[in-house]
Amino acid sequence: MKDINIVIEICGSAGEGTISAGEILSRFMSSQGFEIMSFDSYPAEIRGFGKCVAHTRISSNRIYSPGKLADVLIALNDKHSISQLSALKENGILIYDSQPAKPHKEDESVVGWTKPGMISYGIPLNMLAHKAAGNARGMNMVALGALAALLHVDKLAFTDSIKTRYAKKKQIVIDSNVNSFLEGYDWTKKTIKKIDLHSLKDITLGQPEEKLIINGNQLVAQAALDANLSFYAGYPITPATKIMEILSKELPKHGGTLLQTEDEISAIGAVIGAGYGGKRAMTATSGPGFALMTEFTGLSVMAEVPAVIINSQRGGPSTGIPTKTEQSDFNSAVSGGTGDCPRIVLAPTDTKSCYEAMVLALYLAEKYQTLVVLLLDFFLSNSIRNIDIPEKPSLEMLDANIAPNKEDLKDYQRYRITDNGISPRAVPGTKGGMFFSTGLEHDEYGRPNYGDANHLKMTQKRYKKFNRVLLEAPAPEISVTDKKEFDIGVISWGSSAGAAHEAAMTGQRQGINASSFSSMMVSPFPEKALIAFSDKCKKILIPELNFSGQFANFATHILKRPVERLNFITGRPMASEDILQKMREM
What confidence score (pLDDT) does residue 401 get? Predict the structure, then answer.
């Protein structure tokens, strides 16, 4: 069987069905047994009329990154698609409207901007949409029909997928979408002479397994519910709002409470209040909101109260670029705050690991009585994957509080010094478990104490339990482990890890002796594992989506050796092709 690996982009203006067409395409391809990864970009304005792009990678093998350049570009809007042509491969395919409603002005027709080597298929998208449904709304479905015909896709299976997508709509909506698709499919089959080589004909992948088609935000919300989340407080902010939207409907069904607050400061305050009361509690925000929460992050650490903050990063600083992805909150997540303020930071590397990271975050926050920051980004929050259904958390992950026993309660010391740094935590209402809790430095009873010896003792206590977290950290992911030495080691974190992993494996096939290293646990970091990996590598490359190389600066202090950096702030996810090119240069 030949391998299939194709990237398809649909480009249009807001309101033209660009994103929904991409979703339908992804879901259909998943139903046929293919791996899919899709990622949408759209304007920051709620009702904007700007450029929208649905980017979908389809493969018969496992996918690690979205792919940099498209094999196919479907132009629903010529003006926007002209600027998107730069993301089409030199021998890529352009599907465009050959009979637009109005003649294009000079230099505004996308086909006029194609480069030699590109293949253009003109389809009367507007005309066929009017023929099928009496208006232009079905242009996106006509385009999908044309694409399906060109790729030799099963027509009936695709129409079934469209019917499923609109099953809850009125029959007239279902019929207009199906008819528009069929018009595009049939016209293309009869009229277009295919000259490209892309085809899904006679591809047999076996019986498709049951998959979840889901994005990071949805998976985080589901994981939180499965991990016994009791309380959520938050304020809407892109790209984290979807988490709150889902939980607003589902959390009350699980006996929990959701509070939409007036701002991010009150949100984290409410979360810490709920954590103090013995509830599993969390909030979700992005960079600007996380900045407002900084003072309360210190309170969580000092008062040893469990709290979880999801920070889905976007282009910054300040309000920045709300609908573009970036990895520029590393410093603030790991080190932001006042004083010596150790906090746990987790950074899932792909959609699937978002589930594991969310379950782990609530568990670690409760057990170690501290703040946990979960670092997503716009790409992880919104990219859609088809994944195996995650296993539900084990019982030990659902109840991790270390409660005081009868002996502890005879003379209860909330912050008692212990061998592992974790003090038995009584929740309000525990008989004999009353204690002082404050943001001030305190003694073992919780009473304010500003003595230098006490401050040292309590700081050591907080760091002792912080460092023990590594005992429960997921093992770092290393792409190649059967060699003793590598020419290049690629060290990455967060959503860039998939691209780094793919680049290293591709490099191995192309004669570059490379491997990749990534860790979900960012703070505390598995330094010994990183050094052991580094010692096997002649050169080190660290790719990340920020300008200043925040993680590279952090890793250099651990490695104590120079590293090569690859930094992008394009607003797009990291591409394995760019990492591979840098590896060739090295």
Answer: 97
Query: Which two tokens mark 189?
Result: 């089959």
Answer whether CATH 3.40.50.720 is correct for domain 213-397. Answer: no
Three-state SS across 34-70?
Answer: CEEEEEEECCCCCCCCCEEEEEEEEECCCCCCCCCCE
CA atoms within 13 A on the CB side of 565: 17
**Residue 311 class from Cβ within 10 Å (0-12 exposed, 13-18 middle, 19+ buried)?**
buried
Alpha-carbon distances of 93 from 119, 190, 196, 534, rounded to whole Å:
5, 19, 8, 42
Can you give 434-491 as a three-state secondary structure string? CCCCCCCCECCCCCECCCHHHHHHHHHHHHHHHHHHHHHCCCCEECCCCCCCEEEEEE
Domain 5-209 identical in fold to domain 477-585: no
Within the chain, what is the greatest distance between any pair of CA atoms? Answer: 87
User: What distance in Å separates the CA atoms of residue 17 and residue 359, rounded to the nearest whole number?
Assistant: 35
CB 159 within 8 A of CB 36: no
Query: What is the distance of C-alpha 64 from the center of its chain?
Result: 12
Tell me whether strands 51-59 and 35-41 are parallel, antiparallel or unpaired.
antiparallel
Fold of the CATH domain 5-209: Pyruvate-ferredoxin Oxidoreductase; domain 3 (3.40.920)
What amino acid is encoded at 179 in this protein?
Answer: N
Burial of 265 (0-12, 13-18, 19+ CB in 10 A): middle
pLDDT value of position 50: 86
* In contact, 70 and 112? CB cutoff 8 Å: no
Give the domain 477-585 fold. Answer: Rossmann fold (3.40.50)
- Based on the number of CB atoms within 10 Å of its own CB, is 487 exposed (0-12), middle (13-18) or buried (19 or more)? middle
Q: pTM (2 decimals)?
A: 0.95
pLDDT for 47 equals 61
Among 482, 480, 547, 483, smallest CA distance to 517 is for: 480
Determine the Cα–Cα distance for residues 359 and 412; give it in Å rounded to an integer.
Answer: 30
Structure tokens at 76: 């629903």
Domain definitions of the chain by residue range = 5-209, 213-397, 406-472, 477-585
Ranges of H-type helices in 287-373 = 287-292, 294-303, 330-335, 351-368
Distance CA 270, CA 244 (A): 15
Residue 551 · residue 499 · CB < 8 Å = no
Whole-number pLDDT of residue 44:
75
Task: State the first-to-last Cα distance of the chain, in angstroms, to the nearest integer.
Answer: 35
* Secondary structure class of 283 (helix, strand, coil): strand
Q: How far does CA 359 lie from the centroid of its chain?
A: 16
Helix or strand holding residue 521 (H, E): strand 521-523
Averaged over successive runs of 10 residues, the pLDDT of the chain (586 residues) comes to: 89 92 96 94 73 96 95 96 96 96 86 96 97 94 98 95 94 96 98 95 75 96 98 97 98 98 98 98 98 96 98 96 96 94 97 97 98 98 96 97 96 97 96 95 97 98 98 96 96 98 97 98 98 98 98 98 97 97 97
Name the one residue in this structure whose structure tokens are 């992805």: 325
